[in-house]
Amino acid sequence: MTRRSDPTTRQTLGRPPAVLVVPATIAAALLVLPLVALVLDTPWSTFLEQLGSEPVLEALRLTAVASGATVVACIVLGTPLAWLLARVDFRGRAILRAAVAVPLVLPPVVAGVALVTALGRNGLVGPLLRDGGITLPYTTGAVVIAHTFVSMPFYVLSVEGAMRSSGERFDVVAASLGATRWTTFRRVTLPLAMPGILAGSVLAWARSLGEFGATITFAGNYPGTTQTMPSLIYTTLQGDPALARTLSMILLLASVVILAALRNRWLTTP
Amino acid sequence: MTRPVTRPVTGLEAQIHVPDRLDATITAPPGSVVAVIGPNGAGKTTLLRALAGLVEMTGHVTVDTESWTDPPRLVRERHLGFVFQDRSLFPHLTALANVAFGLQSRRTPRRAAEQVAQGWLDRFAIGHLAKRLPGELSGGQAQRVAIARALASDPQLLLLDEPFAGLDVGVATGLRIELARHLADYRGVTLLVTHDAIDALTLADRVLVVDEGRVAQSGSPQEVAARPLTEHVARLVGLNVIRDGEGEGEGEGQTYRSFTPSSVTVSVHRPEGSARHQWHGPIASVAPHGDAVRLLVATQEPTRQELLADVTPGAATELGLTPGREVWLSVKETAVQTYAADRPR
């Protein structure tokens, strides 16, 4: 699906100027070089063996569980929120939309601190939860909450965009045919927003896969319960850089798979 | 919303006020088809949307003795069929599912709804396209689906917003004939917004002329076509109409003169004779019209409106009738029909 410019145009417009080509080359090198280095330096001979080791499998399992649960939480909770933002005119909608987007730009470690402040043992609602028999910090549940906090904005904005572009006109048509808002949502809005839901899910999953700052701050770094792959890589890097490279390679491969899945959506020029 | 089978069928009675957009009173007996015509932006679509409950309005809407406005009913609680200008078929649903949608929304089980829907598709001779998605249908087929969808749940009020817009002439003609057949069987009131005089003359038994947010004229299609009160309708039916008398509104004392473009004599010099039926101005456009050449002349004081005149191609060439050329138009007294406005209903 790559489009090459017409050769005659290339000839008539002349050579690309150095003032653009040089910075472009530097940018490309900056992006590509670390990944090439990682691939070259990965101890491939021991790759499979290390992949099968107990702590790595634990971390992989936890990462898969956490990112899976995050996507489910995003779909179940984020889809209605996206609908509300796209379809219901209420006071403070603009403010809510801005608030929803904040975690996109929030440094993850700040997100972790904020979560501790709200849900920690002595946090805003933490004591209430504890009275109810729920202790969140340093549990796998906390990992999922941290991941959902940072991933949800990607999901909600993607789905809201899809719902907006499919437009309210079909809602009007459905209403003229006697459909309730719930029926309309279920039979019209949701199916039409499906591309946005898929894209949002993949984005949320990718964000969750790499989550480190908020997780380690809010959930800690305990093998088996809260140690996800990024946390394990961070821990391993201190003592065994070679192993850290292997683990990083695993995540890089996962990222490349995501990229391949998204290729048709974002990586083709219109 | 389940309606008793023996609902009283009394038709439509509505008085609609949409601030800055529309002021209209409309009554229509059951089974009638009302063509709503008027220039772009006159308020035709607003009228339909107000009846459907899609725009804020004051006044009242009563359909078959049920008030739709007191207490106000939501769109989905009004039993209506709306064919939107852009058709708006659900792009992800098959033709069959589109037509069945209204029945399913009103709690008909899927299987039964699809049976009824298939029946409607068959009646429009597109039964074999039931499994197609809207994107796989031609314009005429999609419009049939849209009309079938609106009719499938047996609405009390059928609103058609330019149902033939954007269709090829041949396709539109065929669909017009089919629609006429279905409307003949339909017990509810139909409102049909159209830009085409043919629609009004062939489908409607009443015409409502909307202009600048008001009902400018209403009556039978023949009446309105023979004695148009607005320039827009005069153009639609190919007549020239000149409003005489004082003031702007359609008050008492307004008289109208109408005459056909072919009765107009065009000359390049001031003609002899009565000045009453004589106008002067530059030609605005020249276009072929059947065997003739139709001129649009922007006349000057006191009429200051555009008049149509048909001349033979030979005369057009001989007199050098090109846009910008100053000409005099005149009509014989015997070719002019003079009438007064009825009280606007």
Short recap of the structure:
The complex is a heterodimer of chains A (270) and B (345). Chain A has 14 helices and no strands.
Structure explained in plain terms:
The complex is a heterodimer of chains A (270) and B (345). With 270 residues, chain A is mostly helical. Chain A has a domain at 56-227: MetI-like fold (Orthogonal Bundle), CATH 1.10.3720.10. Chain A has 14 helices and no strands. Chain A has helices at 7-13, 18-41, 47-51, 54-87, 93-105, 108-119, 126-131, 140-166, 169-176, 181-192, 194-209, 213-218, 229-239, 241-266. The radius of gyration of chain A is 23 Å and the shape is globular. By secondary structure, chain B is of the alpha+beta class. Chain B folds into 2 domains: 12-226, Rossmann fold; 261-340, OB fold (Dihydrolipoamide Acetyltransferase, E2P), CATH 2.40.50. Helices cover 26% and strands 30% of the residues of chain B. Chain B contains 9 helices and 18 strands. A 6-stranded mixed sheet of chain B has the order 6-7-8-3-9-10, with helices on both faces. Chain B is elongated. The mean pLDDT of chain B is 86. The A-B interface holds A 169-170, 172-180, 183, 187-188, 191-192 and B 1, 52, 54, 74-77, 79-82, 84, 86, 88, 90-93, 101-102, 105-106, 149, 153.
